[in-house]
Amino acid sequence: MRLVVTGSAGHLGEALVRTLRERADDVVGLDVLRSLHTDVVGSVTDRGAVRSAVAGADAVLHTATLHKPHVGSHSRQEFVDTNVTGTLVLLEEAVAAGVRAFVATSTTSAFGRALTPGDGAPATWITEDVVPRPRNIYGATKVAAEDLCELVARDSGLPCVVLRTSRFFPEADDSEQVRSGYADANAKVNELLYRRIDLADVVGAHLAALDRAAAIGFGRYVVSATTPFGPADLEELHRDAPAVVGRLFPDYAEVYERLGWRMFPRIDRVYVNARARAELGWNPRYDFGHALELLRGGRPPRSTLATSIGAKGYHPVTTGPYTTR
Prior knowledge:
Elements: E1 2-6, H1 11-22, E2 26-31, E3 40-41, H2 47-54, E4 59-62, H3 76-97, E5 101-107, E6 124-126, H4 137-156, E7 160-165, H5 176-181, H6 184-191, H7 199-216, E8 218-223, H8 234-237, H9 241-248, H10 252-259, E9 269-271, H11 274-280, H12 288-296, H13 304-309
Parallel strand pairs: 1-2, 1-4, 2-3, 4-5, 5-7, 6-9, 7-8
Helix pairs in contact: 1-7, 2-3, 3-4
């Protein structure tokens, strides 16, 4: 297959290009940054660059975006230009080129204010049925881009799958409280319970979406590590998360004690990937239980792919907890 990957110099874009080329697909990487994985240097807003990239393509995997860390460094207009207009340009050129499938990377940040339970309320159970309430320009533009995908899919017949991915970045946490209170690996393994996913599983979800796009037509899916929790756990999770985790994983405390780690005292939301697993035929591997198994064996609790891609950062100079490019 001839595949276009936008954002090919980024975490997910590079991982997709590497994986697709390893399976002998013909891949065209598009990014504003030059890299070993970028073939067309240009913005998704540049119709000429996009048209050149998608010519003869069978499918587009659209990962390019301005991210949450850019909220403090880029204007709202720049977010609209890249995340909304850029997505529209890609969709229109994909239709014109006869592309047969379009997979768009979105984010669980789209849910925004819907993620935060009120005082005394249980943790929120986040499925595709939760209505987004964007908290910032990042979330607002990602929701708008999702809606454009649906509009073009319905109007043109271009099969389009939107994946709302949870955290997979390797950089330090954006919360100073978390950075100062927990070792980085500790925080990330904790998050596998409810709001994080390994990069290898994100790649797997995109490939599964690519395979199923024609049968689905249009769909939105939450993509996160498989949670061990159920709706009956939500009330206790929001007041005593270690107790719930201890019941489900009786030996986790021993592993954590050996490492000097701690569980978060409370968990405020749970991302549910059941629909993605069922409808995409996706089988994520790196959940909390698998991370514990790796830790018991003295191995890193992440995939080889995530380790090899490493951190890329979001800014040309150090900005808060985010590394430089």
